[in-house]
Amino acid sequence: MTADAVSPVPRSSSVHREAPPAVTAMVRLIRDAWKKAEPYTPEISQFFYGMLFTLAPATRDFFPINMEVQRGRLVRALVHVVQMVDRPDDLVPFLRQLGRDHRKFGVIPRHYEAVGTALLAALKKFLGDDWTPDVERAWAEAYTIIARSMQEAAAADTNPPSWTATVAEHRRLSWDLALVRLEPEQAIPFRAGQYLSVEVPQRPRLWRYLSPANAPREDGSMEFHVRAVEGGWVSRAIVSHTQDGDVWRFGPPLGRMSVDRESGREVLMIAGGTGVAPLQSLLDELSQWGENPKVRLFYGGHTREELYNLESLRALASTNPWLTVTPVVERGPGLAGCEHGTLAEAVTRHGAWPGHDVLVSGSPAMIRATVSRMLVAGTALDQIKYDPFTID
Ligand SMILES: Cc1cc2nc3c(=O)[nH]c(=O)nc-3n(C[C@H](O)[C@H](O)[C@H](O)COP(=O)(O)OP(=O)(O)OC[C@H]3O[C@@H](n4cnc5c(N)ncnc54)[C@H](O)[C@@H]3O)c2cc1C
Ligand code: HEM
Questions:
Q1: What global pTM score does this model have?
Q2: Which atom from ligand 2 is nearest to the alpha carbon of 147?
Q3: What separation in Å is there between the alpha carbon of 129 and the centre of ligand 2?
Q4: Which fold would CATH assign to domain 163-250?
Q5: What is the whole-number distance in angstroms between the Cα of residue 36 and the centre of ligand 1?
Q6: Which ligand approaches the C-alpha of residue 223 most closely?
Q7: CATH topology of domain 3-156
Q8: CA 289 → CA 259, 283, 292, distances in Å?
Q9: Which ligand is nearest to the CA of 103?
Q10: pLDDT tens digits for 375-386?
Q11: What are phi and psi of 225, to 5 degrees?
Q12: What is the pLDDT of residues 217-228, one digit of tens each?
């Protein structure tokens, strides 16, 4: 499994403290064991859920009726996170978010115990003789550290575990893209640039992440841009079957995309597809101020038809001189002022962007390609921020 298989698990996006030797040894044991177990992931998942639902029957209601659609999401998430226990700088802030986010399911401490027991039992069954006492101790210790961190953050959170909002508008922008505006009962305390997990009535218990495309408003309303992905359970249902009056449930706001207006640094924004939504939210917030750092937004798609939001971004730029919008089109005819190629190519044609804060938002493939090409071009890793999109 790659880091991209789990979302939005942090990757090596910041400088790490050296892990103590004991932790490094623990992670080595965990990783070696997982290499041997990984080919059996479907069987491990099946055994894991069977045991979990026996140990803690109430947890069955947290998961979709048809377990096939998640294809062992939780097991893959657990294993990925456990393997990161030697990277506390990335892991701890992520676990705190995750612990708060898990309150929306109704998870209580006893469930963490059941999940730990089921995970270890499943690994033991499929690893046979490779499940030595040292390996068992390593997995148990890592799981305990992680579960404790999540539970502490959950216990300290005074917000509601989830929020509801009602669909006030659902508009098809194209055959595979919809704008959905919601009005919450109680304003959700998100910051511009953040995202939320969402459960829609057409797909109960299949939570997915979406990014509001607007900054927080006084009336609390939020706008989402949703693209139907091929074979997608939730996105296709949202685009095709959302109705006015539907009630959506939201988890707590997550993510770390932001603009530091005080830093004096200019900003480079790079958006692919609906990845433009959180960046538009940040621009919406900046536009409420008279003075801002200069912002250059590269907004790309495979074809010009994919740049569904270009007109409103250009309108924003026309009244805000600190903003420049550059469309980027990969193939087919271009449009006025556009660059050609992938976003990675277009952005790096302009050099390494020294002194800029860089925000990247889009599909996992686009983020991966853009970040790695920028690093080769000389941009420093700690200039770049992104919240990776899920893929599995
Ligand atoms: C931080 C974050 C913010 C997000 N914000 C938005 C947003 O504002 N608008 C929006 O439309 N989506 C957004 N997404 C993606 C969204 O959460 C779902 O992953 C996406 O809608 C697919 O869900 P699904 O249930 O339809 O597909 P699934 O049933 O989960 O997957 C079906 C197939 O689609 C593939 N797939 C899954 N996600 C993607 C993707 N993003 N691109 C291409 N293929 C994919 C899977 O590999 C699988 O083969 C965001 C994701 C993250 C992590
Ligand atoms: C250390 C403990 C845990 C870790 C690290 C963890 C991690 C994660 C992560 C990263 C996801 C997101 C996967 C995605 O949607 O992309 C997830 C989803 C989920 N988690 Fe946890 N989790 C833990 C404990 C628990 C517990 C105790 C429960 C309760 C039974 C639980 C129930 C769920 C559910 C229902 C989902 C939704 C995905 C699905 O339907 O499988 N988790 N978890």
A1: 0.91
A2: 1
A3: 28
A4: Elongation Factor Tu (Ef-tu); domain 3 (2.40.30)
A5: 29
A6: 1
A7: Globin-like (1.10.490)
A8: 13, 10, 7
A9: 2
A10: 999 999 999 999
A11: -110, 120
A12: 999 999 999 999
